[in-house]
Protein 1
Amino acid sequence: MTDDDFTLKVWGARGTLPGCGESQTAFGTETCCVEMRIAGHRLIFDAGTGIVPLGREMAAEGVAAADLFFSHVHYDHIMGFPFFVPLYKPGCAISVSAGHMLDGRSCAETVTDYMRAPFLPITPKVFSAAVDYRSFQPGEVLTPQPGIRISTARLRHPNGAVGYRVEHRGRVAAYVTDTEHEPGETDEAVLALFAGADIVFYDTTYTDAEMAKHRGYGHSSWEEGVRLAQRAGARQLVLFHHSHYRDDAELARIEAEARAVFPDVVAGRTGLAFRLAAPVDRLEGVDGAHD
């Protein structure tokens, strides 16, 4: 990997619950987890069940460091955390960052409160890796590694959530999930995270028609994701945090409907990968690709 590399991979795109049954497999069964590899560094966003296979791969490859960022700590976003293999590897260095807490607890205190009896038989004390817990306030700019800049913003979600904008050498990726839009209004904080981005991950749990029934749940629609991406000039939209009620046929239909409005859209699914091309490459007509 060179200093110019910026790749992304979806390890889990479902929300609330992992996929259940044969009708929820085509888009993957895992909950939220997105990996970004930037200039030799690994950044991970959320620790849903998708982080479990990611951790196994990292251990097999001998990866010794990663930076993990929670959007928030509702169970679907952290249920894989205690099973992330690198945490149990001596010599590994893992930073864990959270900025959504509204009750005064730090990131370390929140993780400790989650990993305790009677919910789990282990606590964070069993970790063999060097774990650096970092707390921040939404709106702060984070610099987890040299040359990597992460802007943050508060999202509209019960108990709080944080959206991220990751920048490196002219490439931009935004990770914005678990946020509720106000019909007829534009969320300026999300718009700023999306502005001119190469790729954006957005909470598309519902459709516009379903929003009224689910007011206050803290989620958005694929139509709003398209509107934001278009207004912000984002190049690619990934539909994310799929409703646990959606089967594969419904997700395929939503993906097709979204593409009819905004061609550069894809429904998130386990294994979906992207490479962000360097700005000079774009001038030569070479764009980021996904497979």
Protein 2
Amino acid sequence: MTRYRSFETERLLLIPTSEDDAAFMLKLLNSPTWIRYIGDRNVHSVEEAAAYIRSKVTAQLERLGYANYTVIRKTDQEKLGVCGLYDREGLEGIDIGFAFLPEHEKKGYALEAALEIKRAGIEEFGITQMKAITVKDNVASQRLLEKLGLKFSKLVELPNDPEELLLYELKVDDEAAHAKHTYIHPESIT
């Protein structure tokens, strides 16, 4: 089995989301804030959550070496939310995104996790153009994106989604992105 990178911050572990996280993902995907701001994914059982992880997370992880990370609090190993780098259909470039269970919002976890994922995306995965999308009424997400250094660019629509979304962008200097670390895809190591 290929081993993918995990990350760590002062309070958090960021581990690639796997089928072991299916029960947690079921809860997150059906939380009121996920439904309101991201949308109903029609995942209603642990089995459907495992299938969602296989098709949306594992497939991208195998293809690119990064995807969705389950955010775990170090002190008690509780799963708080997710943060990741996504290759979304209809969006050129890599999208940084995050979602937390309502009881773990407004505690700085999303910013802490997203700063580390942003750093890893730039320094370890060589991402030179990072984007983010959010709905117009998700002001908390917009503020967090601005704290990450992303700037509002324009309104966009994604395929199969009639809602206009706010697009935020961050262009990374190519030299800075590759100067500190060169990422080697796990499958290229023999």
Protein 3
Amino acid sequence: MKITQAFAAVGALALLLTGCGTTEEPAEQAAAAGGAGLTVTDSRGVEVELDGPAKRVVGTEWNVVENLVTLGVTPVGAADVEGYGAWVSSVPLDGNVTDIGTRGEPSFDTIASLDADLIVATTDLAENVITQLEDLAPVVVVKSADASGQIDQAKENLNLIAEATGTESKAAEAIGEYDAAVAEGKAALEKAGLAGSRVAFADGWVADGQVSIRPFAKGSLMTDINTELGLVSPWEMEGDAAYGLASTDVEGLTTLDADSFVYITNKADKDFTEELADNAVWKSLPFVEAGEVHRLDDGIWMFGGPASMTQYVNALVSTLTK
């Protein structure tokens, strides 16, 4: 009788252990599949709760779309896909990304149809738009720009998106590539005797036959990168608090003490320097007379993340050291 009871106890224990095994296995599988939830704190200080690392992500601005692709996450939706293809070449989008509308006015109906795990927006988007997006999916907002430290802000944005998508190692890799490009570029400029050169970076456009020039003054991303490379910005005007951008015209360049004038435009727009080809003021500028006006390759996004920043460094150093 005692032996029978012992076997019964062993059998009950075996059943109990078997039962525990069946409840643990799905939990382990869920953990392996990234089923555990996570919380990230965005640039607003808002804690955004996700079911797990986001896979189906929508980006409302080109810099966040660039960061997603850099991290190996192809967004299911992106703003102005055609424009992205023209202006951002560091990490191209594939052809399967749904266009959600313009960068300032995303289509809520289109985004709702994408069943997104996450929407990544920037502080450039109106607060009421962000509020409406939060009805569709969790929204992480990154700070679009910060003239007090553009490079650190760009790295912070990439790391925040990486945290939300579980791609932290990819972020570290991209940031490491940028830092290495700066170190190599600075050494190349020093070797070429260009350390301390006064390099003015700008873009511009033509409207109704009039040329507008936009200096990337102190606090802009390009000038911050140039400073890391050991170059000096000759722009004396003050830029805005977010992007470090100023405004001038060709007459405003007469006081610019620059060794080189470097700019970016796009084949989608008219090259503003062509409009100035016969302009007497432009032709009299010392850097123009010296042949030190350089157009960088199209598709280097001037407001991008570490991928575009690395692309800019390589293009600028190659151009200046030719």
Protein 4
Amino acid sequence: MSKGANTQVTARKVRLELGRVAAPGAPGVDAVALLLAADTGRVRSDADAVSRDRPAHASGSVRHEAAGTETDGPVEAVTVDLAAVEPGVEKVVLTAVPREGEPSALSWLRLRLVDAESGTEIAAYDSEDATVETALVLGELYRRQGAWKFRAVGQGYSSGPQGLAQDFGVTADALRLTAATATAAVPAPAAVPASPPAPAVTPPAAAPAPAQAAPATPVRLTKVTLTKESPSVSLTKAGGTSGAMRVNLSWQTRSQPKKEGWGAKLTRALGAPAALDLDLCALFELTDGRKGVVQALGNAFGSLQQPPYIHLDGDDRTGGTSGENLTINLDHRDSLRRVVIFVTVYEGARSFADLDATVTLRPEHGTPIEFSLGECTEPSTVCALALITNTGSDLVVQREARFLVPERGVSPQRTMDRAYGWGMDWTPGRK
């Protein structure tokens, strides 16, 4: 399989086998499987990380097996009983972490997907281009319309376990396996029968790799961060050309600053309650000229499989870790002319003051795109998050982070409409 390719999986129980194509004498590699929740795309806790230190998931659906031996090197294996995977789990991702923290450990890896009951190979993917990466996502099993599929990912991290931890919500400690159970480095294959095996190499007890000493730019982006200086990205370049793209808004109230600013004074003066309910929304315009809005207000949740190909998953009243999620069907990207993703304060405050909010766009087949809103310095109740524009050959995501202040008697939705020239008629609605 090539990177990004996928295939249907009909077997009830499969094995993900991690071995080597070549690179004799390279340091050993550990396989860690992560079970990702459907609503967040992240683990629910460290218990969703399965490795040789934690060899069995509580559900019994995913198990780590002891290393075996192949001609080209040792094998780490993870068995997945697809029929037993909990309904709330959307993906099982297989990651590789080098035991000695050396980039060369991740070169020339091979991932084989095998029917665990018949032993038949379903798919194989060779990762041959790793260089500075110190952690790697090799492949993933994922649900699609009630069935399971497998995708070759090949996404590398130069930041090691920390990069994996940040993207998938697991702690770095769950990915740093205990040295006491680490096995020897991969021995070179004996070309001559009389050659003695290479001696075992024990990883140094405490020497952290000087990865941060190098002036590093990752070979492959593991996350795109949009900023004021670099506010846009092509979804094609980010790998997001098909499948579902989940847009997540999460928020929390900032801790009290040492010197109380304008926002804090306004919030305190207005007596805003601590619980803040934000609504994630989207204005859409299709290539056939139709326009509309997807939002919880008026129960306009949209649809993923028919126009507008945008669906709001639900109405979160608290923020926290999951926040609100909106999904865009990139399989119908040619039907989308432009989309403005925005957020309104529904209740709990009179502005975005003293609020930390993060927006993450996570294409199913591509690199996550993330940005923060920054500090609100005016009494705004509606904020444009991102503008997605169809250029004819691509979809481009533009970070907006634009706080708007509605005029007296004008709704946040109408304010957003005016700012972006949608030209729709609005009527009052309620949840």
